[in-house]
Amino acid sequence: MTDVPPTDFTLSCPVPISRYPHVTLAHGGGGRLMNQLIEQMFVTAFGNDALNDRHDGARLDPAGRRLAFSTDSYVVRPLFFPGSDIGALAVNGTVNDLAMCGARPRWLSTGFIIEEGLPMETLWRVVQSMQHAALAADVRIVTGDTKVVDKGKGDGLFINTAGVGVLETDRDIRPAAVQAGDAVILSGDVGRHGMAIMSMREGLEFESPIESDCAPLAAMVGDLLEAGVEVHCLRDLTRGGLASALNEIAGTAQLQVDIAEAAVPVDDAVRGACEILGFDPLYVANEGRLVAFVAPADADRAVAILRKHDAGVAACRIGEVKTEMPGRVTLRSQIGAARILDLLSGEQLPRIC
Amino acid sequence: MTDVPPTDFTLSCPVPISRYPHVTLAHGGGGRLMNQLIEQMFVTAFGNDALNDRHDGARLDPAGRRLAFSTDSYVVRPLFFPGSDIGALAVNGTVNDLAMCGARPRWLSTGFIIEEGLPMETLWRVVQSMQHAALAADVRIVTGDTKVVDKGKGDGLFINTAGVGVLETDRDIRPAAVQAGDAVILSGDVGRHGMAIMSMREGLEFESPIESDCAPLAAMVGDLLEAGVEVHCLRDLTRGGLASALNEIAGTAQLQVDIAEAAVPVDDAVRGACEILGFDPLYVANEGRLVAFVAPADADRAVAILRKHDAGVAACRIGEVKTEMPGRVTLRSQIGAARILDLLSGEQLPRIC
């Protein structure tokens, strides 16, 4: 039997209980409170090299064969929304997390937590959507689990997926590998996924509905790596949007990420919905967008490669990495004024993924 | 981009909607209805070689390095119960699924779905318990995800874990590898976990409370394999208990599993609680017990190895594999009468894991 090092179960809770005696929606919102929970509780308890990388997934190394491993649970409501649904989201979300490690996604697990009374037909639509998404992303769903909870103790359907991918590149792709001078490349317009969900929830009507950008990003990442583009870091823009992703990377790399506001594409309908509902599109969730930090000499080539993919037709260079304000993200307006783009404290969009 | 084979989204739902228009608790109960859901819906949609093995986990083979991959979600209530809690359960459950593939468990992911309002101290107790269990089972929690759902849309805390293990044996361990003549070995007494939970929920009081058997089984499996015991199949006895596990194996192997009723150890307090509450201990969930199908010549050696482990002190040989009634599990009483031990249709114990 393995010796168990003594664990001090009397350790006090590392999240300041006086301020947050209970978990709030904001603890799951992708902003400052979620970061605090992860850093102060989960990393404190589970801390190890793989977790300490602060990556979307873990990199594993079983006897020379390098793998990536990632997980996400999906609690989005409604289950079906313009452009996608919880099933495709659950596949693409984990596929994308693996791709952001520089891995080729191969295998997925799926865990269903079903609320008693869910229409069987609903489950079947979701399962078919997962299968379709798995085919499109070239991954196989190889193992799974089903739990049913009593009525009123869940919300229709929650799905967890975990994924394993193979690292076929020797490149060190992670937030800490970002370098001063790196070009920041964005794969397309931002804010679609979050606004597709919120417009539906709020009953906003547009001439054509805003559709989620939900899409697999592994093929475009594969092409970047195969072409030998010097990629230093990749991150998909989920909860908390572009601003939160850049903040996490700037914080880990201890460098400044400087963005030109006018360079960030935002669809007119998305911008309109954001104005009506009081959101900043830079903080709104996406499910088919990434930022790539690449060596400046490779920036144009990287943009050209991304643009060959359906999910990357609007790819563009939006900024660069500097050293003046370590850990900060700055946004330059068209007239040259700069402001700091901070992490949000609260929950901007609950149950968005 | 990957070509997407056309998927026919008009396929009708493969679970007979007329009989089960909605998901019921029994669809998650480990019995016949859950099997039907898995076979008719999930395997239909996701079917592939790894999934078709009907194993507790998938076996992967990235360029010659053989891995196992498994997942489970945990929705047990209450979160804390005699002998264990949801955190240790979430670690040991997935560790055990990997061990049942013959793999050495190495890495876990964890996905938390937290209901808004959960006391932060509760989360911290669970997280510490997971860390303690991970140390005891010699695995590392390397990646994770946190979602928070609104109050009334969850039940305190659900946890998903997925795990990756390394297959260090060339032995083909799976239900289809079971052979006529194999000895059936059980690692200890049955019914503790389910009765620990049910006694607590029902307010039954005993002189000493029934404690869950929740424990990692990877070390005893490692010892069996290292000693060269000819193991054909391993299965941990979770939802649906011993009877359901044996039925699944008999069904996949298309052989008869014949068990001597008197050989199956059941603790007196567990038997008493089962009688009061109307359960059959052979169908009650365990979280630290396994059955091993081994070549008859190795049976005594296998029992001796299991008995060296805390979780295996009561290991014993309980039966053998025959050919007369393919797909059936038979139970012989002390006076020699035999009855068929069938799969249960309904949900015997909801939210047990």
Description:
Two copies of one chain form a homodimer. Chain A contains nine helices and 14 strands. Chain A has 353 residues and is an alpha+beta fold. Chain A has three domains: 1-47, no CATH class; 56-167, 60s Ribosomal Protein L30, Chain: A; 175-340, PurM-like C-terminal domain (Phosphoribosyl-aminoimidazole Synthetase, Chain A, domain 2), CATH 3.90.650. In chain A, the strands form three sheets. Chain A has a seven-stranded mixed β-sheet with strand order 9-11-8-12-10-13-14. Residues 1-10 of chain A have low confidence and may be disordered.
Key terms:
globular, 5-stranded mixed β-sheet, 353 residues, homodimer, Phosphoribosyl-aminoimidazole Synthetase, Chain A, domain 2, disordered N terminus, alpha+beta, 9 helices
Task: Provide a concise account of the structure shown.
The first copy, chain A, has 353 residues and is of the alpha+beta class. Chain A contains nine helices and 14 strands.
CATH fold annotation of the largest domain in chain A: Phosphoribosyl-aminoimidazole Synthetase, Chain A, domain 2
N- to C-terminal separation of chain A?
41 Å
Q: Give helix % range of chain A.
A: 25-40%
Using the 3D structure, state the CATH architecture of the largest domain in chain A. Alpha-Beta Complex
Largest sheet of chain A: 7 strands, mixed
Number of strands of chain A: 14
Q: Please tally the helical runs of chain A, counting DSSP H or I stretches of 4 or more residues.
A: 9
Overall 3D form of chain A: globular
Low-confidence sequence ranges of chain A: 1-10
Mean pLDDT of chain A: 88
Quaternary organization: homodimer
* Series of secondary-structure elements of chain A, N-terminal to C-terminal: HHEEEEHEHEEEHHEHEHEHEEE
Instruction: Write down the Rg of chain A.
Output: 20 Å
**Strands ordered across the widest β-sheet of chain A:** 9-11-8-12-10-13-14
Strand content of chain A is 15-25%
Largest interface: A-B, 101 and 101 residues
Number of domains of chain A: 3
Overall CATH class of the largest domain in chain A: Alpha Beta
Q: Looking at this structure, what is the CATH superfamily of the largest domain in chain A?
A: PurM-like C-terminal domain
